[in-house]
Fold this sequence. Notes:
Strand content: 15-25%
Number of domains: 1
CATH topology: Rossmann fold
Radius of gyration: 17 Å
Amino acid sequence: MKYAVVTGSTKGIGKAIAERLLRKGYYVIINYSKDDNSAILFKDEMKAYENQYCIIKQTLSNYENAMAFAADVEKITNQVDCIVLNCAMTDRSSFQDISKDSWEQVINTNLNVPFYMIQKLDALVACGGNIIFIGSVLGIYPHASSLAYAVSKAAIHQMAKELVKVFAERSVTVNAIAPGFVNTSWQKDKPKDQRKRIESKIALGRFGYPEEIANLCMTIIDTPYINGSVMEINGGYSYK
């Protein structure tokens, strides 16, 4: 059986990716930070796969927590075939209102922790495996919502490219997916007028669905020649 690790995966994009991996036959190591209800709901919805996954509660916001989570992974398996780094946070404060602590927390969660985890789990990554970072369209196109988030995602895109050479000898592919605005809990609570402004900038005129991001993730896994890419999936953002 192949093993996959998906961070931030009891809801939203991470959940959709985890479900697709379960359907493909992977044993999936699920992660979440605080939302216990999402973990309970995940278990209820995934009863058909109850022997095919485990859930680890760990807030991946600093080095110590990243190492603790990686240690838990090492206890479960000695080989990981797919790692999807999806866990992220944001801060929508204005430029002058961003605090030192908030800036560092966003950068730690979105950029530093994925690096620490890949470094720690390096020896477990199987030949021909996949490392996929979930970036963001905001790391490509300037947007007013979150400076720290955008900067961290732009850095994630570059890190995916830089790591290609590191893993080349084992034929491990390293890619990033840059979703646009997706109907997750982050977006559903936006005021209607704000959602309409965003939709007006998208050629397809709508937000994406987590399942669409999961489809692209599986395409990457199933296509070994995709490597070192930052793949946008945004409905044509900025084309309207």
